Amino acid sequence: DIPIDINAGLEPYDLLFDNAVEAYYKGDWISVILNMERALRNKGTVRRVKAHCRLTCANQTDFGEPISGVGVPIPGGGSVEDLGFFQKVLKRADCVNSCESEKLGPPSFHKISEEVELEFRKRSPYNYLQVAYFKINKLNKAVAAANTFYLANPEHMEMRQNLEYYRMMAGVQETDFKDLEARLHMEEFLDGKKLYSADSFAPAIDHFEEAVTEYLIADQECRALCEGPYDYDGYNYLEYTADLFQSMTDHYMQVLNCKQNCVVELATLPSADKPVEDFLPAHFNYLQFSYYNTENYEKAIECAKTYLLFHPEDEMMNQNLAFYVATLGEDKAAAIPAKEVVQQHIKQSLLEKELLYFAFEAFGITFVDPDKWTPADIMPQRLREKQKAERETAARITEEIGNLMKEIETLVEEKNKESTDITKIVREGGNVLFDDIVVTMTAKALNGSQRVVLDNVISEDECRELHRLSNTAALLGDGYRGKRSPHSPSEMFQGVTVLKALKLGQEGKVPLKSARLFFELSERVRKVLESYFRLETTLYFSYTHLVCRSAIEEKQEGREDLSHPVHVDNCFLVSELNECIKEPPAYTHRDYSAILYLNDDFEGGDFIFAELDAKTVTAEVRPQCGRVVGFGSGKENPHGVRAVTKGQRCAVALWFTLDPRHNEKERIQAEDLLKMLSSPLDADFQKSSKDPESAQIAQTSETGEQATLQADKQADEQADKKVKQAAKPKVKEAATKKTDKQKDKPPVKKAAVKKSTIDSGTGSTATDTKQPKAKSPESHMADSQDSKAETSSAADSQKDREEL
Ligand SMILES: O=C(O)CCC(=O)C(=O)O
Ligand SMILES: [Fe+2]
């Protein structure tokens, strides 16, 4: 049941969040914890209450019945029926409203700004909590908070370091690494899969069944929460002049779109950007095979039939079902229906899709179906034809581009040969390679070793272009407007990698020229460093990041922290001990670091070199356009960044390694992508990628990037397959051989069908009965993989490169 706040007037969680953040700056850790924990709890309560109220009210004010007391319908009296309908709407609104206010206080109380919502979505509260728990020695709670935050922010290096640090600490157990925001249905599903892979079918069943139950509950809640306010989504609501029915339609379609999207929300892991494919149906695939393995044919039939509700044509599952039916007997089998709740779920979803497609056709309200199982005829004929035509055009253009690319690649190769020759000649000229570059401060001037400040490394125009690139990329973001800087909540932090920039360039979202410039300038810095430090072996990229730090105006008062605390790039600095621990999780492979500055129109933000105590500053560098501070990444160079108190400070941070094994993978992908894009076609390609046709190209063409992504996916799948094959020992050897062969071809299992018929006749040949392995989810997956076989050469070549 819903926990009811008897004092009606639940404290708004944005207020609590703000209180916690404020306390954080005062170092009032207890208050951080009290407020942040309460914020999280209250957010949960608001969520539960809203879902609860909408669901119970839906039951109480069902739109189905006719209006009471009106009596015989008047012919042509549509308006009376309208009133009946609106009476219901009114009642529902009243019901939801009083239900919510009774439990939460006035509705205006819990209007949360998008900014705060974003903080919660990014799990930021756990970032604050982590520090606070740590400070008051609640180690286990700190670990859980850190882990919860990290799961949703896997790119967050500081938190990764913290976690590894925790891992080494005494008193911390593996079980402390909890996900405090875990969704039950997902946990159950993952547990089920683990057991399934280990052949523990009986316990796997419990988890998968629980996963289905929890999924349906979570789905209901997710759907109810969709019934929120209309989202004007960027356009000015003052200009929104839709009439009654149009505005009802707009809002309702938004709600339906949201409801359909619950499939995606429920199937997505916190750090993943894509959902688990065909998530709900997959449960029944796993279940049927698990039930078969525990010889529960009734349930195997139920689950196979349920799976077939989604994919009625699925050959493998139909064969499995046939086998189970033959084993159990036709009559008994016929009496077993598919799961009723799932039937309902599908029926409702299909109805929604029909409405959404109608609105798509009639009003252009876009709907992208998130499900893989929707029957083709749910989409209106005309829409289907239009999409088919678009796909065909895209395929044709892809082919043409492919041909051109081949020609261009040859040209690029020739050009590359030329440019390496030039580099060789220039390198002999001097140790900063380029005429304009000057050595402004040597290690001596900087009071240390392996340090240098260079100027004029890039031009004013180039600075401006990269600065603009950073801001455009940040605006596009991941749909997020910015992230709080991990170490200074008084600043906003935004970053883009070379590959990300090139991808955005390819999509036409940032100028491709700028993305390429980013790539080239970072290469220039690499060469200069390699030469200046007289390195005898190649300096490889390890990570490249264009970063801006922006002061948050209202958060500067009494500020004492740094923008980036003093640290060492390749070891974990323990300043209390004047020591640096060079062990993973620290990025121990980093050998050289460089920061290329892009601007100076901000206050604060000076770069500092310090001693191992993290306090004594040994040198300072004022950022300015074209300036590079380069230094060895080791303990001889602790460094940090002073608080940026006004404006925005942008720089390219580069880390290098001498170890070829750590040559940045992203860089290689970026090179591939660039090779693909670097052609006289650029302008056209980029322009056209803005229109819908070529947006499709990007998805279907075998671009370098695409191939690599495919390669990654392939590798994942391979791993997945390995796990699943490990689950095979249940199968007799003879059968295994057969399936291995069948992997290449669609598995039409005539033999199996025959055998299963024999089995059901004799009801005894147990060895033969185990035949359905070919019908298991594993071979199911293996098949779908064959269709992707064309991409495996790309996967191989990627692998080769990695092994180099
Ligand atoms: O931006 C800077 O000046 C230095 C940044 C830095 O040291 C780092 O990101 O490791
Ligand atoms: Fe650094």
Q: Could you give the count of β-strands?
A: 15
What is the subunit arrangement here?
Answer: single chain
Please compute the radius of gyration using only Cα atoms.
Answer: 31 Å
State the separation between the terminal residues, measured CA to CA. Answer: 59 Å
Average pLDDT level: 78
Structural class category = alpha+beta
Largest sheet: 9 strands, antiparallel
Uncertain runs: 421-430, 478-483, 679-804
β-strand amount: 5-15%
EC number: 1.14.11.7
Domain Fe2OG dioxygenase: 544-658
Biased composition (Polar residues): 696-709, 758-769
Region (Disordered): 684-804
Task: Reconstruct the topology from this structure.
Elements lengths: L12 H14 L2 H32 L17 H27 L9 H8 L2 H12 L3 H14 L4 H12 L15 H14 L3 H25 L18 H24 L11 H15 L3 H14 L4 H14 L1 H5 L5 H24 L17 H49 L8 E4 L9 E5 L4 H17 L6 E2 L6 E7 H9 L5 H21 L7 E12 L12 E4 L4 E3 L4 E3 L10 E6 L4 E3 L2 E4 L6 E5 L6 E5 L6 E3 L2 E14 L7 H13 L4 H7 L3 H9 L3 H23 L6 H10 L7 H13 L3 H4 L7 H10 L5 H12 L1
Antiparallel strand pairs: 1-2, 2-13, 3-4, 4-5, 5-15, 6-14, 7-8, 9-13, 9-15, 10-15, 11-12, 11-14
The structure holds 2-oxoglutaric acid (AKG) and fe (ii) ion.
Account of the 3D structure:
This protein is α+β, with helices and mostly antiparallel strands. Helix content is 56%, strand content 10%. The chain is built from 28 helices and 15 strands. Strands 1, 2, 3, 4, 5, 9, 10, 13 and 15 form a nine-stranded antiparallel β-sheet that branches. The chain has a four-stranded antiparallel β-sheet with strand order 6-14-11-12, with no helix packed on it. A hairpin with a 6-residue loop joins strand 3 and strand 4. The longest helix has 49 residues, at 381-429. The chain is globular and about 90 Å long. 35% of the residues are buried. Residues 421-430, 478-483 and 679-804 have low confidence and may be disordered. The site of fe (ii) ion has 4 residues, from loops. InterPro entries: Leprecan_dom, Oxoglu/Fe-dep_dioxygenase_dom, P3H, Pro_4_hyd_alph, Pro_4_hyd_alph_FE2OG_OXY, TPR-like_helical_dom_sf. Residues 696-709, 758-769 have a biased composition (Polar residues). Keywords: Dioxygenase, Endoplasmic reticulum, Glycoprotein, Iron, Metal-binding, Oxidoreductase, Repeat, Signal, TPR repeat, Vitamin C.
